[in-house]
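Standup notes
- HV: blocked on the assembly model, inputs below
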Amino acid sequence: MRNVTDYEDGTDIMLNENIEANILPGRGRSYGAEFYVKKRDGRLNGWLSYTLARTENKIEGINDFNWYPSKTDKTHNLSIVANYQITQRFSISSSWVYYTGNAVTFPSGKYIYDSQVWAYYTERNGYRMPDYHRLDLNFHLKGKEKSRFKSSWDFSIYNLYNRHNAYIINFRESETTPGTTEAVRLSLFGIVPSITWNFTF
Amino acid sequence: MRFLSIIILTIVFTSCEEVININLKGAERVIVAEGLIEFGSNGWIRLSYSSGYFDESKRDYIDNATVSLSDNNGNSEIFQYKSNGMYLGNLLKGIPDRKYTLKITVDNKSYTAESTLFPPAPIISANFEEELFQRPGDMTKSYYLVLKFMDNPFIDNHYMIQIQLNDTLENNSYLLLRDSYYAENGTIEYKPLRHRFVQGDSLVIGLYSIDKDTYTYYNQLNDLKEAGMGASSTPYNPVSNFGTNVMGYFAAYSGSFQAAVVK
């Protein structure tokens, strides 16, 4: 791929009127394989999809002009969806997703300048966020049909095993142990149960 | 708006922050240089090494370096090592409009940095302006600093301001400005809106004339600081004037100072 772009080091992203001046063009390459299996019929149906991929950039002025993973590069991306019709009115479905964490730039060291601690970086996107995975479950109950009025209930659980997937990882000076630095993970949604009532008339 | 509030409240109540263990690659340590020559003073530099990110935050000082300072007028000197990575000059004193070159040699490798010392910008006045919009429930009046100083209209000047409040340096970020945004008829009137003061506060304002590269370097430090040590979309090392293999900076600058009390 030609004319792949990325921000040069030190780009001020906020309120920058000439941000195009900080974008560098270069080359990119992407390769991999995709697999997809689906079972359509029967009381148990669903599908499985898997992608193995690599996406890299090489841009003069970034990462010493060496190939580095693109921000959107995900090595593994697995998705499993299953539905099971228990009775005519009652069904259960679940999905499980797993993918490799995004490529990110984390510090490889630190130093003190002007009495403050600063992070030291060695390579662009040289680290990975922790792998992401999550299981969702849904119970679907159809209501009894009464003339034109139809209804159904969905009892769902998002993130069944309450996995704390990382949304952001920050590096900072420790608040509890002065003189040390720490990594802090911010995760958004843990387990979220929900009930939905659907109706048509 | 109500919908947005519900979304924000949901995220606040469902998000969680945890200190985690994470494996970071051990990087080869690099030299960290912090050097300065000010108007009328001898130069100095402190040399140390970087450390692992989760190591204790104490400096590993360099005591075997050779440091020399020269100017564009043909003068030069070798710095003497004192202690704790500190090397001091005792011959050359900062003179305006001179370009200074600092050379450090560590383990047979040399690194050179240059910086130009600009004349000081005289401070005309340091006054305070009452903030019109008080925070809800806050009955204490707060005030902004209004700093007025002279600016040479024929030179593209850059400035750094440091405020010492009640004997403590306010270093949340470096206050940096370029005259192209503020200058009018040879003067600049600058209001650092982030800094608010109350009656009785005692300030010492330091106004430093810096060169463009020094401005850029400290601007990058500000950028990194505001991004929270790594949370920015493109974290990076600020570009040192010693080159990419050294962290830190050598600056030459001159300062004007003014004391003021909020009345």
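- HV (later): unblocked. Chain A touches chain B through 49 residues (CB under 8 Å). The CA atoms of residues 2 and 27 of chain A lie 5 Å apart.
- Next: hand off to the docking folks.
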